[in-house]
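User: Design a sequence. Structure:
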């Protein structure tokens, strides 16, 4: 991430995977956040120091909606590329994202 990474052994892919986990779990559970205890505290520290997440008691979420929008766009793009024309598979996979996927899919189609 942008600021000094106090944990150089953590790869950017691990940070991205944690962000995606926060986004997807929050959407699937239809909750205000994900429990901090479910995440690597080193990655939470990195995300907090870079202003990516906010903490509310024992839960965290991404600080801005645009971060979630970008995450969903990347996730849907990736699944679409992987489906290779097997659209039933694509829709089955993205439905697992939770109830929010319908609106996220509409936004993705419009782009």
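Assistant: Done.
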């Amino acid at each position: 991430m942008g600021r000094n990474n106090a944990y150089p052994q953590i790869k950017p892919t691990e940070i991205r995977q944690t962000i995606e986990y926060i986004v997807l779990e929050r959407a699937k559970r239809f909750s205000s956040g994900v429990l901090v205890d479910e995440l690597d505290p080193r990655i939470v520290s990195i995300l907090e120091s870079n202003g990516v997440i906010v903490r509310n008691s024992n839960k965290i979420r991404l600080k801005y909606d645009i971060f979630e929008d970008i995450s969903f766009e990347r996730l849907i793009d990736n699944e679409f590329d992987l489906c290779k024309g097997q659209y039933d598979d694509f829709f089955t996979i993205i439905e697992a994202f939770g109830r929010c996927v319908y609106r996220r899919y509409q936004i993705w189609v419009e782009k």
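The longest helix spans residues 65-83. The two ends are 27 Å apart (CA to CA).
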